[in-house]
Specification:
408 residues, alpha/beta, Alkaline Phosphatase, subunit A, 13 strands, 15% strand, TAT_signal
Length: 408
């Protein structure tokens, strides 16, 4: 094997390209409880732009606010809202009533727009940031209220426990080593694997050659901007595909356990912080989410009908696109719901409109509902928790109001 190929392999394995290894390096948590229903919570880290994922194309102001971001394709949902084209493979779920959205929701977090604080409040399920934020998560408190939940019914796989499951309820953690050192013998073994699959061998050889050429040319300074950008884009596409495979691997790992005794699972998908070139950045994150949802659907089989998936993010993004082709940290956003247990093919929520007077601080989508309310009703309908338990313990201070009825 030549030097350039060895260099590429070392770089690739250092990045962790193996989809099979993804459950070992990504935080995943599971819980087994005495119920036949399943709840999957996917935390979308980085503040997903709900206006791009579930776009209000029916509002003429939207294209004025986002002249660049509305040039791409969208899939019509209900004549007013449309699905980002990068999630287009989810349309069969929408048509089957197994995909839905909630618009104009947020946690009670306001104004500071810090990813760290926003994610902490999202996972803690609290209204304000204080000393209690990092003490417990809302799923942990929910488990403590379910009769029959056992000491080993919740566990975490990954390098750290997600805050959403941290607390007094016992949780078992496992953080395996994921370091990979590539020896010459390992490189020869990988070549042998390539040779057994002609299609993979050809793709692998192309990728290694491309990466090696880019790396060597950059070091030697004999690459022009156009060629460098082209090869860099191809490498980004490869990484995006690998990330989607990793998300699918996570979902497969979760589905296998959900088909057994596990009734709750949570993991995260990052990459939603889209300050610039949002058309590119959101594509990668969307492909990961799409892969995870489709894998859950395919792998869960009949259990899918008893499953509710909630995709939550720390806050939304600004209504107007910025000068870098992206959007900045905002307030109101969207939730994504999936699963055979939901009443999909609907965009839930009280839509506030996009007039300047209707915007939060004349820049953000105005939140009209606390997303904790929707998660609370999921706990109520799926696992039988009372409204009083949810308002006092699971989500202290939340007002559940009337059941939005998004579960079958």
């Amino acid at each position: 094997m030549d030097t350039s190929r060895r260099k590429f392999l070392a770089q690739t394995l250092a990045l962790g390209c193996s989809a099979a290894a993804s459950p070992l390096v990504t935080p995943v948590t599971f819980a087994s409880i005495p119920s036949d229903n399943r709840l999957v919570v996917i935390v979308l880290r980085g503040a997903m732009d709900g206006l791009d994922v579930c776009a209000p194309l029916g509002d003429p102001l939207f294209s004025q606010y986002r002249p660049g971001l509305t040039k791409r394709g969208f899939r019509d949902l209900d004549g007013y809202f449309a699905l980002n084209e990068n999630l287009g493979d989810l349309m069969p779920l929408w048509k089957a009533g197994e995909l839905g959205f909630v618009q104009a929701v947020s946690t009670p977090y306001r104004d500071k727009r810090s990813h760290f604080d926003g994610q902490d409040l999202l996972e803690a399920g609290l209204a304000e940031s204080d000393s209690k934020v990092r003490d417990s998560g809302w799923i942990n408190r929910m488990l403590s209220l379910i009769p029959g939940a056992e000491q080993d019914s919740a566990f975490s796989v990954g390098r750290e426990n997600m805050l959403i499951l941290r607390g007094d309820f016992p949780v078992t953690s496992w953080a395996p080593e994921s370091r990979v050192d590539m020896s010459p013998h390992g490189q020869l073994l990988l070549d042998m694997i390539y040779e057994k699959d002609p299609l993979f061998a050809q793709a692998g050889q192309t990728a290694m050659t491309l990466a090696a050429q880019l790396s060597m040319a950059q070091m030697e300074g004999d690459i022009d901007d156009a060629d460098g950008e082209m090869m860099a884009e191809m490498l980004k596409s490869m990484k995006s595909s690998q990330a989607a495979q990793q998300a699918s691997g996570l979902a497969t790992f979760a589905a296998e356990r959900l088909k057994e005794d596990t009734r709750f699972a949570t993991f995260s998908i990052g990459g939603w912080d889209t300050h610039l070139r949002q058309d590119r950045a959101i594509k990668n994150a969307s492909k990961e989410l799409q892969a995870a949802l489709l894998t859950l659907h395919d792998q869960l089989g009949p259990v899918w009908d008893k499953t509710c998936v909630l995709c939550l993010t720390e806050f939304g993004r600004t209504v107007r696109e910025n000068g870098s082709g992206g959007t900045d940290h905002g307030t109101g956003g969207a939730m994504i719901m999936a699963g055979g247990a939901i009443k999909g093919r609907k965009v839930y929520g009280d839509w506030p409109g996009l007039d300047d007077a209707a915007l939060y601080e004349q820049r953000d989508l105005m939140p009209t509902a606390d997303l904790r309310r929707y998660a609370g009703w999921a706990a109520h309908d799926l696992f039988g928790l009372s409204v009083a338990q949810i308002e006092s313990t699971v989500f202290p201070g939340v007002d559940m109001f009337q059941n939005p009825g998004f579960l079958r």
